[in-house]
Structures are given as structure tokens and as C-alpha cells.
Amino acid sequence: MSSMKYSYSLWSPFDTVKDVAESLGVANLSDEAAKVLAMDIEYRINEVLEQATTFMRHSKRTRLTAADISSALRVLNVEPLYGYDSSRPLRFREAILGPGQTLYYIDDDEVDFEKIINMPLPKVPREVSFTAHWLAIEGVQPAIPQNPLPPEGRTSLTNSSGAASTEVEVKPLVKHALSKELQLYFERVTSVLTEETSDASMINAVLTSLGNDPGLHQLLPYFIQFVAEKVRLNLKNATMLYLMLQVLHRLLTNPTIFIEPYIHSVMPPILTLLVGKRIGTTQAANEEHYEVRDFAASLLQKVCTQYGDAYHTLKPRVTRTLLKAFMDPGKSAGTQYGALCGLKSIGPEVVRVLVLSNLKDWASVISSASSASTEDKNRLRKAVLDALRSLVDSELATIDEVSEDHKEKFKQYVGPIVSELVLAADDSDAIIKAVVSDPFD
Hints:
- The chain is mainly alpha-helical.
- The protein is built from 16 helices and 4 strands.
- Among the domains are: 13-106, Histone, subunit A (Orthogonal Bundle), CATH 1.10.20.10; 137-177, no CATH class; 179-311, TAF6, C-terminal HEAT repeat domain (Serine Threonine Protein Phosphatase 5, Tetratricopeptide repeat, Alpha Horseshoe), CATH 1.25.40.770.
- 55% of the residues lie in helices and 5% in strands.
- Strands 1-2 form a two-stranded antiparallel ribbon. A two-stranded antiparallel ribbon has the order 3-4.
């Protein structure tokens, strides 16, 4: 039999392995099998030691303990060792069994049973229990039993007989502290934004402060509530609505404000000004309400771009709301214009999947509506072109003229009304190519 060169730094295949085999009733274990078993034993021990060393390093220790070995055995699906306490160092003793045969064992402490029996019993531990509650949210304590009651004057305490003994004044542990400076700042800013006597320089100074000054995070919920209230009460004042959108824009762009937890409060005023039925009342405000809707669409795009990944339901919910307003023929032209601009601001994929598939029917309904003015219809045509242009790839902007076959397919897909509108545009070839390349090619 050819000799096999193996490294047996821990186990001897001819002594240890064969002795264990004989103790298990295997009398005739071949040398080859003993060598293979010795190699496997050495590999398994190295594997256990590597895992145990990992536990030791993660525990920020430099000494390997019996607990590390037990944890390594559990990871390797091996029953751990029992009876080894790592809280005290192990003492090994040496016993000579014969010439060249040394046995090491752990020296166990001698225990006096009489002393242990006479020792008092330890105290019964308390049952394990746990609970969780909010101590304070945004500086305000929730009204739950775990928190102290709010102060209601002075509370009297009674003794066991029911007689009043002392009076204790209960004070809340946490207060929503708003410094005097912040209160004055908020009052000054809101007064400048709402008073008719405020000039443009004062308003610009306030907006610049909201967009750049640090330390305004505590006032953030108050400003958002202020904007929502002013939007609700001034739907007929397009100038005030545009100013409130400017406030939201400055709060969203302030690098020192963490506005992400308040996105759910920011969205209602934006959507209201995007798809509101009527914004402004006078004829002069007709142009202004389209500017308000355009500004609201730009803010919606900013919110969806920055926080769409953090709030996974944000884009789907906004898309459903806008699509419902866009496809409702009973909505005003301003509402449908805002819905179309909002869908475009969410992304080209929304335009391709939702707007294009409904554009043919929508255009026929809008063209036959007698309530929409010529200005409103022109605005809607511009919004449709802008939405379709969002599908154009910049690399395809200089493509050659599209074929008549592509133009016919485009007309069948979007309808004659939209097709005629696109063909009259200067960049009609790029728009047609962008639309028909995906559904038809």
C-alpha cells in the first residue's frame, strides 16, 4: 500500500482513532479508514475553532471561552457541551497512565453537601414581564395609563382611612417647549405672509429665511398647518395660494429641516391646488390659476422624486387620485389640466401606461365639451403636448422623418384629435417615434 502524506497535528490515526473505534465495538479498523477519519476530525475541529474565534472577536475579547465553543457548535448544528462554566478559569490536572501516555483532566472543586443543604434558599425571582409605550411624541405625552396625568390644579392624597392628608401638585414630565424666540419668529413670519401691507422685499426676506435658516425644525408642523389653513380659506385668492406654495417650496429645499416625517401633511394642500375645481374668481385670475397649478405640479414632482422610495405607497396613491380627476368628464378644464400636469410630473412611465391608453377617448370628450373656453382648450392641448414630449429620448430628438406607416399607427393609437395636434408641432417626428416605438415595434 502506498504511503499517504497527511498532516496529523492533533490526532494520531493509529492510536486515538483506533482506540475510540475499539471502544465503540469496531475491532478491525483499517489503516486507510483511520487516516481518513483523522483528517475529518482535524477538519471539524478547525471548523469549530474558526466559528468560536468569530464569536470571540464579535464580543471584543481576546480570550476564547467555553461559551464561544458552545455557540460555534450550535451554529454548526451540533449539540453543545454541558457542564462547563466559562465564568471561572479551568484548572487542568495531569495523570500518567503509563510510559508516554498522559491524560489531562479538569480539576473539579470539592463541594461540602452539608454546607449547601444548610444554606438558606435564594429568593424566588420575579416573573418576567415587559411592556412598551410612548413616553412622548413630538414633545407631547399621550394620554395613556403609563404616563402621568396632566396637571389639574392640586391633587389631594388620602391615607388608608380615607382622610385627606397632603396635597401634591402634579407636574408633567415632558413639555412641548417652544422658545420665546421661535414663537416671535413664527408670529412675525405669518403676519408678513398674510398682511396686505407687506411689500415684496419683506416677503422675499421671509421666504429666504424659510429656505436657508437653521433651527426651524420645531416650527415645521406649525408652518405646514398654517399653509393648509390658508389654502382652505383662500381658494378664491390665487395670489395667496401661490405664496403658500412658495412657503412649501422653501421648506422642502431647506437643507437643515428634516421634512420627511411630515410628507403626509404636505401632500393635501399640493393636491388641492393641483386639481381644485376653482382657483380664483375674477377674469384676471384666469391666467394665475394655471400658474398655481403648474407650481403645484413642480412641487409634486419634487416630493415624488425625493421621497417616493421612502414612502412606497406615495406614488400609487397620488397616481390614482390624479387619474380619477383626469378621466372624469364632469371635472372642470382646470382640474383636468392640473391632473395631466401632475401625471406628467410623476414620470414618463405613468404617461406611457396610463395617459396614452386613455388619451383617445379623453380627447374626444374634451373636444365636444361646450363648457370649456377656447383658452382652457388651448391650455389642455399644451399640457397634452408637454406630456407626450416627456416620452422623447434626448438621443432621438434629431431622428430622421418618420414614415407614413408610423404616422398612421400613431393616429390609430391616440385618435385623430391628438394626432392632428402633434402633427402641427415642430417636433412631431420625435413625439410620434417615442409613442409608437414601444407599443408597435
